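Deliverable D2.4 — example input (structure tokens):
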């Protein structure tokens, strides 16, 4: 762990996590690491004696063992659901809607803003919405009335072209990370919280939390401005959960757990197979309406962050992931 800490300490705060892990893995496996973008970590090369592979951050895939078609399909949350449902895998369902009129003449009907409002009404004016191609929990939230949905659409349309709207479902959320058919680890996901200080109201704590999210380029956590409960002052140390998104980047937490149930393992493995991915993290709900053994896939991430492994001191798992990547790309003997 010390070597990883040493590498991390020598990098700026903006340096990508996965680039840190790649450099660490190169040192462990006897490969050459080269940052080729002036120390930003946004583009780097990894080389053996016989071969060199380039990697990129941002929208580039950290997992080149996944082919481009599988990665692109998985990034579209609606396409993912269609593919999984055709394979007999339970999902949360939902439909997609465009937020702008441009290109309207080139697409099928039934997916415009006016259609989103009708679909929302059919769901009982309660739904969970998120960008169709979003990540890190940005603009992922529950909505409970048409006015909030319209406000959400206006805000999301500044950054995204389309959204996925789904029935609002609750349960226990898990992430299962797979390499080919092998479950590398499973983690229970928990929502973000604000921590009471005995002086400030929940509203003030929420505003501070949201300011930190926006500084990282993420949308704020939704809260009803007129909700009197937000004026309550939390005692020091008391936790207030922020329901909805559980992404680490949005303040959520993950706890590594023992091997998941057979049903969860089967659903995750079948989802990855259906999409043709070799490395992926599958997010699932269990215990939906008290039915623990009927999991439903929330989404499949073909480019998942693994920061929780560093936070959990599981560098052994980080090395297993990068060994799989380097081996798949012919940089290491299998």
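Example output (designed residues):
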């Amino acid at each position: 762990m010390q070597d990883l800490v040493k590498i991390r300490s020598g990098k700026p705060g903006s340096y990508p996590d996965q680039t840190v892990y790649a450099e660490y893995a190169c040192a462990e496996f006897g490969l050459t690491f080269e940052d080729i973008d002036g120390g930003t970590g946004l583009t780097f090369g990894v080389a053996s004696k016989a071969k060199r592979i380039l990697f990129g951050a941002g929208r580039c895939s950290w997992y080149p063992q996944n082919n481009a078609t599988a990665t692109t399909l998985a990034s579209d949350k609606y396409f993912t659901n269609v593919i999984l449902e055709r394979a007999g895998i339970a999902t949360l369902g939902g439909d997609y809607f465009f937020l702008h009129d441009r290109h309207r003449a080139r697409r099928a009907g039934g997916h415009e803003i006016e259609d989103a409002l009708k679909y929302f009404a059919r769901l009982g004016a309660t739904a969970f919405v998120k960008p169709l191609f979003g990540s890190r929990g940005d603009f992922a939230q529950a909505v409970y009335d048409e006015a909030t949905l319209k406000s959400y659409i206006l805000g999301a349309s500044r950054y995204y072209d389309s959204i996925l709207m789904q029935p609002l479902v609750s349960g226990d959320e898990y992430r299962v990370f797979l390499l080919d058919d092998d479950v590398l680890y499973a983690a229970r996901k928990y929502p973000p919280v604000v921590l009471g200080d005995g002086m400030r109201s929940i509203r003030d704590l929420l505003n501070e939390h949201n300011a930190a999210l926006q500084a990282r380029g993420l949308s704020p956590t939704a809260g009803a401005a007129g909700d009197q409960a937000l004026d309550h002052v939390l005692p020091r140390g008391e936790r207030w959960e922020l329901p909805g998104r559980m992404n680490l980047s949005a303040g959520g937490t993950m706890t590594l757990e023992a091997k998941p149930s057979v049903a969860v393992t089967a659903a995750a493995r079948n989802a990855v197979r259906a999409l043709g991915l070799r490395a992926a993290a599958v997010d699932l709900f269990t215990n939906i309406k008290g039915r623990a053994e009927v999991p439903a896939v929330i989404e499949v991430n073909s480019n998942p962050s693994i920061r929780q492994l560093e936070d959990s001191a599981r560098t052994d798992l980080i090395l297993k992931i990068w060994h799989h990547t380097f081996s798949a790309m012919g940089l290491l003997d299998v």
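Residues 66-91+171-191+243-302 form a domain with the D-amino Acid Aminotransferase; Chain A, domain 1 fold (CATH 3.30.470.20).
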